[in-house]
């Protein structure tokens, strides 16, 4: 019997036996106690350990782009056994990323398995439960499927990767679902809306609560120099968006991405999933660069989408906003939703969009109860916009 | 124009502007130059930086389980600008995990986005290209879809998560696919075969090269105290496998997992995917604890599977191996595949399995060109076994 128990111990911990038998016990980090968040790390030889977290107190700082408010790093305190600790008190319920800096080396919290990637940078995340964050937590019971799909893209001349969310119960009946095509921003990729944006959890919760129509959400990769996120495939040679002339007609036609969306992605989705393949069953939305793609894809293909969402974006000064919007007005639409806060660096652009919508008497919904050009804004936008789609 | 360029720079790097404008340039790490692997990390204040990688030279060491050969950590050397570096020469082409220890704090390589989780531990990984590793790299062209599915499990009384791989081209015709049900080991979860096991890449490559039949691969979570991997949901209260009596009949009936596989998972897969819902279209395989589930699920449900794969497992001394295998012999099968190396701690168990198969004159394939009880062994096993399925 003793031998059997040893065998099974061995089998289970074979790959991490040294950590299990040799090392000190795992720390609880993060520890979330009501609104207090404690981060811990074992670093007995360190001189200075700092915590860099979105949940820390905000200060005004000078940046290359002017004065900005941002959470400032704090020093952690060393306690027994070389364990450093910091408790942030009265943290507002929300979704937060953080990293730890040990003697100047930025690293992840080794005791927190909740990890995400923002472009080229990794961080941990945590959720302080409460009203604002409740849709970011896993839904109690019914959760949808997330697919990582490689689809042929003749427009790019290669197979590319996108994420597709199908709601719980999809495929159990003959029901056809509407589809939201949801674009990331510059520097992001097909993973961003699911990881940073909590799109699956938000949709699971909204659908489970009866607040949003069950829908499919398609999250493509909109970066011209990527076939998939950079953790999976190295970027391909050729220009990224960076440095392109935002005033050019080519840029505003959306280039290869809009072509790919219309010629590759939508036909793929409509031939592989049970969807309502009509204007009334299609929504498009995007943030920042994805907002640009949304603006110009809908202007050039006003026959495709009844629901339009522009997040943290609008028209640059050089564009004729009314000329861009008129085809959409003429074709008709069900919802034109704009989400942008006054502290968002894209606010001037959003104002130009809102002004043109007003001047054309185009009905629209403007949501301004959000902050800057950050994922906090975009998660809130998805929560607000999704319930209005397909209704 | 200048303003436009600044705007777009801002939009793209909004979330990481401080890292981009303030910090030093990113390092190339890992750098893989032929068979030489260089790891770099910037840590100007560190006293001692060590590299812990599966590609480092192996030494014999004393462990709580006796003398074992394992790669030993090496010291990295500090060069200019506080950048520490180590080059491992003549590394055998393969898939390797690694971490870096900065003054005793184990951390990920901040310049490598390739990250995986093994149970409770995170590490980076890299692939040195060559004959052994070529199936671990992304397939050139056609890649299958990976689905993260939440399915209802009445046997567990909750929704649980599994991964499902569908090959490239799935869903484009009326073709029905065979299914491999692939189980992880103790301490693992539904993510393990895809991340540590490179299952998608291996299957993509084998199928693209015409070496394996296009098949669906279902990778459930077989841990009784998890509804999903621990990065997504905290383990639920109740016993994990650890500490159960491996000689008990209850254990050998597979407990809730075998019940769930037969009553929940197979019916879900067969009603949601285009599959050959017959014995000839079903394979089951598993490693270590998943090998135990494979042994006892097939013994108790010999009518279900024509293809059986037992990796790094076999019968413990207390079991009547022939009694367990006889129902499978009587029901008939196409393939009984056993993969285990002589240095594997489960080798004695595998020997008992092989001996009983011999004594019963049951045709079987034994693959022994593998090492210990590690993911290296299981990746090789999948490469060897998959081409024999459904043929």
Folded structure, characterized:
Two copies of one chain form a homodimer. Chain A folds into two domains: 2-129, Immunoglobulins (Immunoglobulin-like), CATH 2.60.40; 136-388, Alpha/Beta hydrolase fold, catalytic domain (Rossmann fold, 3-Layer(aba) Sandwich), CATH 3.40.50.1820. The first copy, chain A, has helices spanning 2-13, 17-22, 192-195, 199-208, 249-252, 255-272, 289-300, 321-331, 347-359, 375-385, and strands at residues 31-33, 36-42, 49-53, 58-63, 66-71, 74-75, 77-78, 83-88, 95-102, 105-107, 115-118, 121-127, 145-153, 158-166, 179-183, 216-219, 282-287, 307-311, 335-339, 365-367. Chain A has an eight-stranded mixed sheet with strand order 13-14-16-15-17-18-19-20, with helices on both faces. In chain A, strands 3, 6, 9, 10, 11 and 12 form a six-stranded antiparallel sheet that branches. A four-stranded antiparallel sheet of chain A has the order 1-2-8-7, with no helix packed on it. Mean pLDDT of chain A is 90; it is low at 1-21. In chain A, 26% of the residues lie in helices and 27% in strands. Chain A is built from ten helices and 20 strands. In chain A, helix 7 crosses helix 8. Chain A has 391 residues and is of the alpha+beta class. At the A-B interface, helix 1, helix 2, strand 10, strand 11 and strand 13 of A face helix 1, helix 2, strand 10, strand 11 and strand 13 of B. Strand 13 of chain A pairs antiparallel with strand 13 (145-153) of chain B, so a sheet runs across the interface.
């Amino acid at each position: 019997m003793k031998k059997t128990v040893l065998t099974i111990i061995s089998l289970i911990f074979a790959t991490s036996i040294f950590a299990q038998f040799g090392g000190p016990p795992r720390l609880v980090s993060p520890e979330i106690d009501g609104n207090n968040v404690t981060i811990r790390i074992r670093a007995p030889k360190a001189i200075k350990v700092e915590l860099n977290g979105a949940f820390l107190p905000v200060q005004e700082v000078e940046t290359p782009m002017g004065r900005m408010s941002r959470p400032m790093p704090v020093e952690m305190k060393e306690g027994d056994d070389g364990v450093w600790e910091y408790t942030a008190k009265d943290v507002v319920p929300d979704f937060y990323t953080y990293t730890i800096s040990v003697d100047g080396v930025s690293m992840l919290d080794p005791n927190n398995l909740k990890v995400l990637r923002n472009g080229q940078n990794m961080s941990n995340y945590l959720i302080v439960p409460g009203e604002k964050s409740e849709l970011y937590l896993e839904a109690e019971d019914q959760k949808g499927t997330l697919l990582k799909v490689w689809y042929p893209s003749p427009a790019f001349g290669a197979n590319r990767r996108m994420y597709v969310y199908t709601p719980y119960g999809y495929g159990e009946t003959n029901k056809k679902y509407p589809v939201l095509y949801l674009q990331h921003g510059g520097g992001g990729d097909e993973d961003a809306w699911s990881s940073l944006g909590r799109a699956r959890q938000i949709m699971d919760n909204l659908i489970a609560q009866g607040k949003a129509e069950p829908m499919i959400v398609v999250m493509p990769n909109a970066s011209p120099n990527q076939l998939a996120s950079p953790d999976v495939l190295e970027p391909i040679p050729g220009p990224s968006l960076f440095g392109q002339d935002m005033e050019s007609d080519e840029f505003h036609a959306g280039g290869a991405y809009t072509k790919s969306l219309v010629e590759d992605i939508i036909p793929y989705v409509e031939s592989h999933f049970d969807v309502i393949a009509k204007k009334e069953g299609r929504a498009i939305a995007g943030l920042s660069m994805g907002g640009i793609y949304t603006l110009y894809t809908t202007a050039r293909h006003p026959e495709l989408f009844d629901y339009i969402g522009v997040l943290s974006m609008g028209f640059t000064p050089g564009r004729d906003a009314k000329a861009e919007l008129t085809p959409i007005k003429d074709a008709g639409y069900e919802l034109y939703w704009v989400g942008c806060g006054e502290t968002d660096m894209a606010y001037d652009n959003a104002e130009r969009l809102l002004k043109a919508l007003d001047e054309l008497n185009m009905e629209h919904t403007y949501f301004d109860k959000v902050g800057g050009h950050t994922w906090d804004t975009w998660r809130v936008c998805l929560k607000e916009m999704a319930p209005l789609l397909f209704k």
